[in-house]
């Protein structure tokens, strides 16, 4: 999927009609070496049909494709429309012909026409997408709990009852608790019932159609009595012990209104009979569990990695739409080779009352690429780390520190769901 923009091909870019969706999926599966079952393929077909679809045709052959889901992403202080890029594929016979670059250029045009100032993706090859202005904006950590003994915590769990509910009833029950997180953490997608059913809960079984290593169907536990709004919930699967493997609880999602509520849910998950390990697919890097645990040998971070990659497509709209933690008034010299309208020297004046982003003639306080600004936008990547790495140039002493203070958020951004 790499490109050589100096060697442009004569492929024709156009919308992929619904009649070509099967061909498009075959292309994607071929490039990513996938062989999904029928249910997963039907799920992908539904996603692709609802998505924006850009095709690169070489004569009658579909040589490349890029899709984008129309999603809404939480940002500090609000929400913004976002193009969630997916299905990006180029035939191996057509690599290094500029096809990916052409599709990205067309995507930027579609974002502008559709009023989407942000684009995001999960980077299969990060070295490629950095060239198009995407930067790693959120991180997740993988956690493993030793459940062979009771989970030792430093505070008492919430005493409300825990109960299992029918996953089919879960979207209506869980949505208010999930929606409350949108204002607390940036990097989260809003969900409609379809995304709940097919994504978080897998009610159509598409995820079970993939190799599941013996894990059973999804289960949902909520904290609180019937008829009351849940104080928290967890979505998980279980696998019994085998000859050469432990019994495992695999946690897909956990949300709680407070630390005691989270303690109740984690204690429950670590106490399920015939299991001795809890594996958590992804949690925020500042997850309270890491401080709640009385014994950090029992709760271990087994990995940490970049999660959502973000691209500011319309810098002015993105910067003026988010909230700011502290006043800042700086001139930024911004590079953006793919979108010249973003490039140049601008004055950012921002604070708790709002922000402006206007062209400036003064000497810059900072110089940086849109990739770095995209990484910092949600508040998860400190600008000073990029400056220490030589990726941001500070012309005015203290400018990095002042912009860092303005971008800061109370909680780190986190993206728990893939699409």
TrEMBL record:
Matching Pfam families: Acetyltransf_17 (PF17668), Acetyltransf_9 (PF13527), SCP2_2 (PF13530)
Keyword line: Acyltransferase, Transferase
Residue sites binding acetyl-CoA per the record: 88-90, 96-101, 124-125
Catalytic residue list: 129 (proton donor), 419 (proton acceptor)
Catalytic class of the enzyme: transferase
Ranges that cross the membrane: none
Domain N-acetyltransferase: 11-156
EC number(s) given by UniProt: 2.3.1.-
Family affiliation: Belongs to the acetyltransferase Eis family.
PANTHER family: N-ACETYLTRANSFERASE EIS (PTHR37817)
Protein name: GNAT family N-acetyltransferase
């Amino acid at each position: 999927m790499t490109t050589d923009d100096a060697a442009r091909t004569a492929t024709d870019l156009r919308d992929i009609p619904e009649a070509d969706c099967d061909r498009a999926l075959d292309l994607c599966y071929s490039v990513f070496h996938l062989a999904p079952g029928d249910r997963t393929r039907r799920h992908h077909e539904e996603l692709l049909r609802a998505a924006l679809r850009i095709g690169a045709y070489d004569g009658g052959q579909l040589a490349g494709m890029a899709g984008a889901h129309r999603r809404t992403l939480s940002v500090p202080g609000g929400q913004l429309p976002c193009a969630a890029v997916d299905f990006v594929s180029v035939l191996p016979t057509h690599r290094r012909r500029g096809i990916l670059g052409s599709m990205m250029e067309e995507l930027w045009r579609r974002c502008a026409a559709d009023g989407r100032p942000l684009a995001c993706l999960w980077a299969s090859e990060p070295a490629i997408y950095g060239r198009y202005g995407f930067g790693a904006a959120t991180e997740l950590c993988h956690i493993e709990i030793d459940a062979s003994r009771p989970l030792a915590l430093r505070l008492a769990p919430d005493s409300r009852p825990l109960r299992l509910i029918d996953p089919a009833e879960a979207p209506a029950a869980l949505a208010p608790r999930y929606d409350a997180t949108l204002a607390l953490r940036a990097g989260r997608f809003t969900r409609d019932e379809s995304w709940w059913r097919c994504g978080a809960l897998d009610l159509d079984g598409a995820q079970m159609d993939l190799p599941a290593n013996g894990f059973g169907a999804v289960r949902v536990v909520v904290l609180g009595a019937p008829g009351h709004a849940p104080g928290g919930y967890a979505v998980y699967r279980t696998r019994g012990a085998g000859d050469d493997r432990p019994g495992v609880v695999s946690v897909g999602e956990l949300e709680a209104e407070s630390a005691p509520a989270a303690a109740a849910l984690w204690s429950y998950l670590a106490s399920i009979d015939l299991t001795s390990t809890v594996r958590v697919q992804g949690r925020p890097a500042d997850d309270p569990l890491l401080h709640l645990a009385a014994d950090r040998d029992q709760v271990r971070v087994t990995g940490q990695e970049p999660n959502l990659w973000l691209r500011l497509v319309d810098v002015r709209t993105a910067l003026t739409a988010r909230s700011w933690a502290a006043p800042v008034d700086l001139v930024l010299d911004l590079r953006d080779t793919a979108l010249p309208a973003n490039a140049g020297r601008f004055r950012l004046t921002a604070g708790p009352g709002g922000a402006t982003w206007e062209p400036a003639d003064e000497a810059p306080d900072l110089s940086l690429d849109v990739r770095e600004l995209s990484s910092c936008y949600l508040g998860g990547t400190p600008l000073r780390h990029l400056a220490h790495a030589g990726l941001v140039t500070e012309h005015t002493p203290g400018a990095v520190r002042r912009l860092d203070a303005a971008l800061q958020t109370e909680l780190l951004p986190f993206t728990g769901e893939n699409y």
